[in-house]
Design a protein that fits this description.
The protein is α+β, with helices and mostly antiparallel strands. The protein is built from 9 helices and 6 strands; from the N terminus they run βααβαααααββααββ. The chain has a 4-stranded antiparallel beta sheet with strand order 1-2-3-5. It has a two-stranded parallel sheet with strand order 4-6. It is extended, with a radius of gyration of 24 Å. The N terminus and C terminus are likely disordered.
């Protein structure tokens, strides 16, 4: 029985949120480029060079206004569990709950500061973390940061949970995008060239294709793919938040409007167990 659709038509489109702003600013960027080219024309009197550069700037303008779109699907509970099993097993990146970190902090502080007169106050401060509407003054925030740094160095239980959390933040978006992306248009690499959509023999997106995409776009799409599997659940604490640069990604003008939806003809990348 088919539990979910894998067709692009049934998928949810996603564009990284900074791209509309890039597209909106592209005309002004083009005008600035054109002004520079005109000054160079006046100085060098090379009309042929001006025409060539102006044509490339125009193509780049057109390309910047064609946004990347990732087509993602929401899977069923079995596929979601398979994703979590891969993260926990293959990548040692299980879901780290807030109460686990808090308990590890309590255990470490209780052991390392046994007998300290400030122990109870520090434990109470740790317990306030995660509470709704909890606020901390500058001194309390500094104490918590110092405690976290000390535990990361001297308490293995806390250090391992933090390592698992960081592994999950780095890997979960990639695993989710491999499993739940059914196509994309106009995804680009850091040089601005279009990256074709390619599936591996396991039916998931080929790792080589994902690895070629601009990392910021890939992580944003991966975060969205992951969150779709939990139907609005709060997953932000275990995933990264990419921060877009104010500088637009490079765009290869000759690739404007290109699409890809092919399959690899040979084995590509590591086969992911499902």
């Amino acid at each position: 029985m088919i539990l979910t659709s894998t067709s692009a038509a049934a998928a949810i489109p996603f564009t990284p949120p900074w791209w509309p702003d890039i597209a909106a600013k592209a005309p002004a960027r083009y005008e600035r480029t054109l002004a520079v080219l005109r000054k160079k024309l006046e100085r060098d009197n090379d009309q042929a060079a001006f025409d060539l550069a102006e044509e490339e700037a125009r193509k780049a303008l057109d390309a910047a206004q064609i946004l990347p779109v990732f087509r993602l699907r929401a899977a069923g509970v079995i596929e979601r569990a398979q994703m979590e099993a891969e993260l926990s097993g293959d990548h040692r990146a299980h879901l780290v709950q807030g109460f686990e970190l808090k308990q590890a902090m309590r255990n470490g502080v209780s052991a390392l500061l046994a007998g300290d007169p400030e122990l109870d106050d520090l434990l109470a401060l740790i317990d306030r973390q995660g509470e709704e509407d909890a606020t901390f003054d500058e001194t309390e925030e500094r104490r918590l940061i110092e405690v976290q740094k000390a535990l990361a160095q001297h308490w293995a239980e806390y250090r391992e949970l933090v390592a698992q959390l960081e592994r999950r933040r780095a890997i979960a978006p990639i695993v989710a995008l491999r499993r739940f992306c059914v196509g994309w248009e106009n995804a680009r690499n850091p040089k601005g060239d279009i990256v074709p959509f390619v599936k591996g023999p396991d039916g998931m997106v080929a790792e080589e294709a994902l690895g070629a995409i601009e990392p910021l776009d890939m992580m944003a799409a991966g975060n969205r793919a992951y969150s779709l599997q939990y139907a609005g659940a709060d997953t932000e604490k275990n995933l990264p938040r990419p921060s877009p640069s104010d500088v637009a990604p490079k765009i290869s003008a000759s690739d404007a409007g290109s699409k890809g939806d092919g399959k690899s003809a040979k084995r590509r990348g590591r086969k992911t167990p499902v």
